[in-house]
Amino acid sequence: MECVRQATERIERETLSPYAQLSEKSEGRERYCAECELRTVYQRDRDRIIHAKSFRRLKHKTQVFLAPEGDHFRTRLTHTLEVSQIARSIARGLRLNEDLTEAIALGHDLGHTPFGHSGETILNRICSGGFRHYEQSLRVVELLENNGEGLNLTKEVRDGIVNHAGDNEAKTLEGKIIKFADRIAYINHDIDDALRAGVITKYDIPEKLSSVLGETHGERINTLILNIIKNSTDKNDIKMSEEVLDAMMSLRQFMFNAVYSSRQAKQEEQKAQNVLVMLFEEFVKDPTLLPIAEQRMMDWFSRERVVCDYIAGMTDNFAVKKFDELFMPKAFTMF
């Protein structure tokens, strides 16, 4: 009698697209792991990511606006969840593997720095060899989680994570979906946050783009998802029509000009970057300030690499707290 996992694998064989990555056809993990009776390999990867410490820390990492006043602005965690929802919708429409798609989506930003892309920019500047959050996400799941053991994820999930940004392409269609879903998510939810913050009004969005994509948050996302499904069905690729892709990329450029470079988004950026620079320099100068676990990592990696990993893993609040501990004067107390 087949177990639950085997039944799920059979359903995949019978119902998914011939271009889908079947769970039973995974190239496997770096270290042997006995099969689960309940979950497929990609379902297990999804669960491992959700229960990881780096995933929980995303709730306190900036998306666009640093330390916003209000509870409704996106964080790196809510961004991740929106990417997952969009990606799963696309995968379902194309009869691809939703579990693999979801696992990649949930893990794609685990290596993101505190203070959003401004944190990534400054670490890329001060770390020898540079810093790219998608490469750091792979480093997190392969090495940094579980005290140096990593999460031991499947090859397909790791490939999708490291190739969700940059010039490289994921090997699976499920991985390719994430690059589109990431852009769809952040462009649209950043518009929503910018409207809430008063950085732009709905009338600032170019009419020629709204006429193609839609005027509301929901209309734009629906248009983009449906366009991908329409242009990728029964094809061994993930693509949009030229018109819709051009409109999406033009909307992205509008966001860079009107929002990401705005005074409201940038006003605390220099302070945040100074925090990370000073922490980096102090930890490199005196590694005894690092936690014991990080000090032990210097047996395998350079001091600078370990410090970079430690800072990249910080939440916004923790980075400010460490800065306060190391650099701010304390009141004198008599015992």
Description of the molecule:
With 335 residues, the chain is mostly helical. It has a domain at 269-327. The chain is built from 17 helices and no strands. Helix 5 packs across helix 8 and helix 9 (173-197) crosses helix 12 (242-260). The longest helix is centred in the middle third of the chain and has 25 residues, at 173-197. The protein is flat.
Concise description?
The chain has helices at 4-15, 41-50, 53-57, 76-93, 98-107, 116-126, 133-148, 155-162, 173-197, 207-213, 217-232, 242-260, 263-266, 269-285, 292-297, 303-312, 316-327. The chain has 335 residues and is mostly helical. The longest helix is centred in the middle third of the chain and has 25 residues, at 173-197.
Mean pLDDT: 94
Major sheet summary line = none
Q: How much helicity do the residues have? A: 55-70%
Beta-strand content estimate: under 5%
Poorly predicted tracts of residues: none
- The coarse overall form would be flat
Number of strands: 0
The number of helical segments is 17
Order of helices and strands: HHHHHHHHHHHHHHHHH
**Multimeric organization:** single chain
Provide the structure class: mainly alpha
What's the alpha carbon Rg, rounded to whole Å?
21 Å
**How many angstroms does the end-to-end distance come to?**
71 Å
What attributes characterize this protein structure?
mainly alpha, 335 residues, flat, 17 helices
Give the SSE layout.
Elements: H1 4-15, H2 41-50, H3 53-57, H4 76-93, H5 98-107, H6 116-126, H7 133-148, H8 155-162, H9 173-197, H10 207-213, H11 217-232, H12 242-260, H13 263-266, H14 269-285, H15 292-297, H16 303-312, H17 316-327
